[in-house]
Amino acid sequence: MFRGSIVALITPFTEQGKIDYSALAQLIDWHIAQGSQGLVIAGTTGESATLSDNEKIELARFSAKQSAKHNAGRIPVLVGNGCNATAHAVELTKQLNDTGIDGYLTVTPYYNKPTEQGLLAHYSAINSASELPILLYNVPSRTSCDLSPKLVSLLAELSHVCGIKDASGELSRIDEHRQLCPENFALLSGDDESGTEFCKLGGDGVISVTANVMPKAMAQIQQLIEQEKFQQAELIDQQLAKLHKNLFVESNPIPVKWAMSAINRLPSAHMRLPLCQLTPAGQAVMSATLTDLTQHFQEI
Predict the structure, then answer these.
(1) What is the tally of structural domains in the chain?
(2) 11 within domain boundaries
(3) 116 in a domain, yes or no?
(4) Is 165 a catalytic residue?
(5) 203 lies in which domain range?
(6) Per the residue annotation, which of 56, 104, 123, 165 is the catalytic one?
(7) Partners of residue 5 on adjacent β-strands
(8) Helices (H), 86-183
(9) Is residue 269 part of a domain?
(10) Could you count the other beta carbons within 10 Å of the beta carbon of residue 268?
(11) Residue 210, marked binder
């Protein structure tokens, strides 16, 4: 169900800090036209930590409706529903169920460092509240909490859990997941720098920050891998290598928002505090990166 190039979409804000729904609609339309195969709304790159529950619900409803306007071209919309209080995540999930979205991206609880027993109970509670497919989200660099392959195999037995976004960067886990989890369990990379290799080794796709800026190229990589044209996929990936890296020159999504504004795909790079604007040093890095991309891609 969830595979290919899925965009970890930014949340556009006005200079006053309100969600810019006009800009969001244009982004969704553009991503569909460029070949993206899915959208993640209100994830890490979407500044989920500074969005209220009501904003997440409205974003979900709006994004699902905007995607549906494309009829046969509609692509799946997933929404981040995770937090580090189980009761809160359960309540949010219940409110999101009827917004028209296709599934959830559910991050591990952060800061409070639950045991594996606690993680199993946490995800079981969310699974019981959900009426939609759930992608687990493992990003230990941000959460200080890691989903081991063995625990993932237990979570895969839950009725709505259909896959995982793994941002651990540990490619050895692909084989472990394939051995321990059901055959149709989706394995998605959450790391653009290793995403192409991840998919060559048997992954099903990438939930990508880079795809915000270069959706067509990221979709092409996935199509080429599916066709087993690995050298061509690697060539495009190499051309994107600086972008993969430099989108993290400062905390995500600060650089990607600046880049989207620089290529005129976003009216404002406004961030909600405590995130702030890209520093002059960061702007110099990103400006050089975008200039480099013009040597390879006409769309920049």
Answers:
(1) 1
(2) yes
(3) yes
(4) yes
(5) 4-229
(6) 165
(7) 206
(8) 86-96, 116-129, 140-143, 149-155, 173-180
(9) no
(10) 16
(11) no
pLDDT digits (tens, 9 = 90+) for 210-258: 999 999 999 999 999 999 999 999 999 999 999 999 999 999 999 999 9
Tokens of 44: 């890490």
137 is catalytic: yes
Task: Report whether 207 belongs to an annotated binding site.
Answer: yes
Contact 84, 48 (CB under 8 A): no
Sign of CA dihedral 233, 236, 239, 242: negative
CA distance 163 to 186: 4
Classify strands 205-208 and 186-189 as parallel, antiparallel or unpaired.
Answer: parallel
Give me the residue label for tokens 């969005």.
51
Cα separation, 259 vs 204, in Å, equals 27
Residue 267 lies in a domain: no
**Active-site annotation holder among 56, 104, 123, 137:** 137
Angstrom distance (rounded) from CA 9 to CA 161? 22
Residue 300 has pLDDT above 80, yes or no: no
Q: How many CB atoms lie within 10 A of CB 72?
A: 4
| CA gap 267, 82 in Å, rounded | 29
The CATH number covering residue 225 comes to 3.20.20.70
Cβ atoms within 10 Å, residue 88: 13
CB 40 within 8 A of CB 208: no
Question: DSSP strand E in the chain: where?
Answer: 4-8, 38-41, 77-80, 103-107, 134-138, 161-166, 186-189, 205-208
Quote the pTM value.
Answer: 0.95
Note the pLDDT tens digit of each residue in 58-85. Answer: 999 999 999 999 988 899 999 999 999 9
